[in-house]
Write a structure and sequence with these properties.
Elongation Factor Tu (Ef-tu), domain 3, 32% strand, Rossmann fold, seven-stranded mixed sheet, five-stranded antiparallel sheet, single chain, alpha/beta
Length: 264
Amino acid sequence: MNKIIAKEHFSENVVKLVVEAPLIARSRRPGHFVIVICGEKGERIPLTIAEADVNAGTITLVIQAIGESTRKICALQPGDYLTDVVGPLGRATHIEKFGTVVCAGGGVGVAPMLPIIQAMKEAGNRVISVLAARTKELIILEEQVRRWSDEVIIMTDDGSYGRKGLVTQGVEEIINSTDVDLVVTIGPAIMMKFVAELTKRYSIPTICSLNTIMVDGTGMCGACRITVDGKTRFVCVDGPEFDAHKVDFNEMMMRLRAYNTPKK
């Protein structure tokens, strides 16, 4: 059982929870995720760790209420408990001094991007962050991102904040104005696909962090399998980060739709 220490609403359907998990906080690295269960018969939900406080023994999770299980988690209040939090899982982000790193995050993908931004900056990189969402209300963690970025560009679909347009427009503006050594992208699968197609044209190495359907998180069930460079890989143990230019995003998106409720 893991106690909820604090809660904050980013928007109507996006919630930040600070969760008591001292062992995970101590060993977590940028890119790691946890699997969370709410209720004895709850689903296993993979969530990337947005922040960790070793002294307080807590980790921060950002959850978007989409289905029954995530709505149940988002309804928890400080003092309530998650039934299980397992982790840290996956492979940590490879951090080194690359030069200029562009971090492109969409929607709740900004949460797992935050520790990567921080680590890249601490490694001596120039970090340019592009935050994208449909509207101003869906831009999250802007203040924290600005703290660790040399420059921040905000893109909204409706133009209600920052610049009107897609994340790819912001990334391409940067590419055309400066030498970029690495792009890291986290967000909806369709967003990462188009960022990868853009950077491939410019021959810029690009890393994506995938959040596929998972069950056990140990590579046994195969639910999170994807195709990378023509080979089967498992996001839970081989990822969650991969060379974005080698991921078969079309296959991945098809598998993500497997559990959608059929339209009547």
